[in-house]
Amino acid sequence: MRFNTLNRCRAICLSAIVLVVGISASHSYASAEPTLTLKDAVAQTLERNPQLYQYTFATEMFEARKQIHSLRPAIELELEMENFAGTGDTQGFDGAETTLLLSSVIEMGGKRKARMSLVDARINKNHWEQQAATLDVLGQLAQLFIEGLATQANIDLANNSLNLSRSLFRAVQTRAKRGATSEAEVMRAQAAVTRAELQLAALTARLKRQKVLMVRFWGDTLPTFNRLNANLFEFGKNESFDQLYARIKTSPSLQVFASDARIKDAEVTLARASGRSDITWRAGVRRFEDTGDSALTAGLSMPLFATKRNRGEVKAALAERNAIQYARQDSLLRLHAKLFEAWSLRNQNMDAVMKMEDTAIPALEKAFQLTKKAYENGRYRYQDLVAAQEELLAAKQALIDAATNVQISQVLIEQLTGASLSQ
Question: pLDDT for 389-417, tens place per residue?
Fold first, then answer.
């Protein structure tokens, strides 16, 4: 099913989420197995996500209401008969008076225009709510995609850990055969291999769960891909906090408040217009059966003191309108705090990734190789080799965690600002 009504918000949503922090497709696995890119996941979600389709029905409802409110007051046809079926001269229909009337209302104060303006404001709000909801859904999808990428990276790390544990186990066995180490160390090394195998199995199962959670965004139950195709360690450009904060003021979440304000303005206008009394008119023909004569009849009527009776409605509408302003200010302050937190965490973790890649991990890899060689030559203990291996694996795990935090922070930034840093 194609949800064509989502087309008008696709541009902002695609530009905001598809290129999440430069998470570009990796070509390493393009020909080896079925893969999924974030761009494909977003496109399928926009096409088939049931949660986003509800706004289509809301739009249709408001359009129907606008059509109703655009109608002018109906003209009524009225037939009256008097002085019949009585006594004396009014027996039967000889003395009857029959009147045929047309009547309607002349709306004063621009009520029809005010009603249509109110519906237009609600349509506008629904449009921005649709975009905000779409950004939220795509943000959840992008975060799950990133978590899946992190799990894939952890699986690669777990495979590395398993290979190291098996290599260490073989080295311990070799030394034990020479009598250079105890049987207890062989058992410990074997247990380390088992733990690494269990860790790999747990991560593989987690990725399967994450893939099932991911495909629900476009209404599927079973994934048709084997691997997520993206680079967890590729980030977009840095922007200043002031530049990002300026974008928040035009983001869909704040545009909803602006739409609320327009709705309240329209309600105030409608309340004031309702205070203007409408004029009811009547015009018709009256026939006198006893003489056979006819005469025209006409009349006007309007309620008195309608403005005074409507003051409460106007005051209530104005109070609600003023409350919107303070709610928007409060929301802007909360968005400012969230944006700064995400921006700060992104920069912090990007710095951590850079230092881990450039300094810590190369040093620990060299230290591990030196320790392993020294252990094989009998100069280091088993505990020294295990410690060097664990330090190296912990540093690589910290690198994955930091990169994941960068990407998730950027997803939040793009949700808040409604724009992609890489665009």
Answer: 999 999 999 999 999 999 999 998 988 88
13-22, 46-55, 325-334: segment of lowest average pLDDT: 13-22
Instruction: Please state the φ and ψ torsions of residue 103, each to the nearest 5 degrees.
Output: -145, 155
Q: Is pLDDT of 7 > 70? A: no
More confident residue, 7 or 184: 184
Segment 127-153, tens digit of pLDDT: 888 888 888 888 899 999 999 999 999
Q: pLDDT class for 75, splitting at 50, 70, 90?
A: confident
| Residue 405 φ then ψ, to 5° | -65, -35
Q: What distance in Å separates the CA atoms of residue 257 and residue 232, rounded to the nearest whole number?
A: 35
Q: Is 85 exposed, middle or buried (0-12, 13-18, 19+ CB in 10 A)?
A: exposed
Q: Which tokens is 4 given?
A: 């064509």
Q: How many residues does the chain have?
A: 423
Task: Look up the pTM and report it.
Answer: 0.74
String of b and e for 285-317 (b: at least 16 CB within 10 Å)?
A: ebeebeeeeeeeeeeeeeeeeeeeebeebbeeb
Cβ neighbors of 96 (< 8 A, separation 6 or more) are 81, 82, 83, 84, 90, 289
Average pLDDT over residues 373-380: 82
Distances in Å between the Cα of 375 and the Cα atoms of 103, 134, 288, 381 are: 105, 57, 125, 6
- Structure tokens of 266? 């329209």
CA distance 172 to 182: 9
Using CA atoms, how far apart are residues 118 and 121, in angstroms rounded to an integer?
5
**Cα–Cα distance for residue pair 103/279, rounded to 1 Å:** 11
Give all domains of the chain, ordered by start, each with its CATH number.
4-72+107-275+310-417 (1.20.1600.10)
pLDDT of residue 92: 66
Exposed, middle or buried by CB within 10 Å (0-12, 13-18, 19+), for 196?
Answer: buried
Strand 76-82 to 97-106 pairing: antiparallel
Identity of the amino acid at 63: E
Residue 128 neighbours by CB distance under 10 Å: 20
In 83-128, where do the E strands start and end?
A: 97-106
Query: Are the beta carbons of 159 and 200 closer than 8 angstroms?
Result: yes
Euclidean distance between CA atoms 169 and 276, whole angstroms:
91
pLDDT of residue 212: 95
